[in-house]
Amino acid sequence: MNHPHSDIVAFAYRRTANPPDGGRSGKSSCAETSPMAQRTALTAVLATLALAACSVPEAPVEPAPAPAPASGERCIGIAAIGSTKVVDDSTIDFTMRDGRVLRNTLPNACPSLGFEEAFTYSTSLSQLCSTDIITVVLQGGGPRLGASCSLGTFVPHTPTKAE
Predict the structure, then answer these.
(1) Domain residues of the chain, as ranges?
(2) Average pLDDT of the chain?
């Protein structure tokens, strides 16, 4: 029977049919062998393990490669941000004061971000970075805080006429 990834080594010993003590000690014949025989058996076991280690394994099935992160800026200056537009639960467009649009695609969808279209952030630096966290502002019945989510990188984006 040949199964992938079934490199199993079995060890067995035999008990003597008529041990000198009538089997009362529970010792196998292996315990009564000479040191030379034990070394030979050990050498055989080690040789088997060495051969198993040297065998060519089947090619592993590799998962599909993760999409390469979009190249872009890791941080943007807060003072350079002119406005923001939430596109959906995973995307925010930052329009910079110089007219550039930088799209930030969050690594994971941020619940209610697309519906509320409002978020806040807090940073001790003068920059907003891909390592920072935004928090959705829930607006119904007075502002409350919702989900907190990580930002992605800031990638240059050219809006279409529909946007």
Answers:
(1) 1-57, 75-156
(2) 75
